[in-house]
Amino acid sequence: MADDTARAAVKEVLLSLGLDAEDPIEIQEQFAALRALLKMISDPEFKKDMEAVRSWRETQERVRNAGIVAAVGTLVAAFFAGIGWAVRAAILALQHGGGRVGH
User: Could you tell me the pTM of the whole model?
Assistant: First the structure.
């Protein structure tokens, strides 16, 4: 009776962890994979590699943001240059054309 209760409790715990208590080989494989993953992420070289990847990603984001700022800046500068040229053309037209703009 106590064994059945213990088995049911263990089965419930395993199920709550997402493990199929009916397939102990699969549970062993999953725990082996977890141990391998823990070993890998505990490796100092792996941590350095992940830091390098993060640094590369952050650099890429900064470059992208700088590119967007440069593109917007270029568009704004071109817009104001166009306005400046239009004002200059209007002034020249007024000076040389006797007040008629566009000729």
Answer: 0.49
